[in-house]
Amino acid sequence: MRTRRDGTTRPTRHRAVQPLSVVWLTVVWSILWRDLSLLVVGSGVLVAVGVCLVFPLPPIALFARVRPWPLAVLAGGFLVDVVRASLQVSAVVLRRRPVRNAVVAVDLESSSDFVLTGVATILSLVPGSVVVEARRSTHTLYLHVLDTPDRARAERFRAEALAVEQRFLAAFVPRDDHHSGRTA
């Protein structure tokens, strides 16, 4: 909240043009044009500022620190999940039997948008599952999961997704301390 001269308060607005976003978008622009000339970089800055003004985003507090060992565990677990899921998807395709899929809701324990995005990204990159909806208000991910014939398999996937969240929380320590659980 920001205090006005008359003593009243009003909500603090975020800056529409965030310098880091402008730099990042300019780099992407230059890579797309495959040129670092003054004209390309200058036009990239103008386009980046325009994008920031037309599509303003609130600043997101990403994390306080990265823990190297838990990050290595997260990356290793991700690689194991990708290999295991690739073999499972291959087996499903090769066996040529009817496949029952399911949409599984995973209620994340964290209330951090950064964690929601990170976990959703990791789960989507593993073959056999795709995020079909992410509800920010409840921090719930809805995932379409391949070859889920019964409730037990859906529960096993939900437990695996929550384990990914726990590895993510161990690797990236959020600034807010709400990651230990949400209050209803």
Automatic annotation (TrEMBL):
Signal peptide boundaries: none
Keyword terms, alphabetized: Cell membrane, Membrane, Transmembrane, Transmembrane helix
Topology in the lipid bilayer: Multi-pass membrane protein
InterPro entries, sorted: Cation_antiport_E (IPR002758)
Cellular localisation: Cell membrane
Domain of life of the source: Bacteria
Keyword Cell membrane carried by entry: yes
GO cellular component: plasma membrane
Keyword Transmembrane helix set for record: yes
Molecular function via GO: monoatomic cation transmembrane transporter activity
Ranges that cross the membrane: 39-64, 71-94
Family: Belongs to the CPA3 antiporters (TC 2.A.63) subunit E family.
Record protein name field: Multicomponent Na+:H+ antiporter subunit E
Source organism: Nocardioides lianchengensis
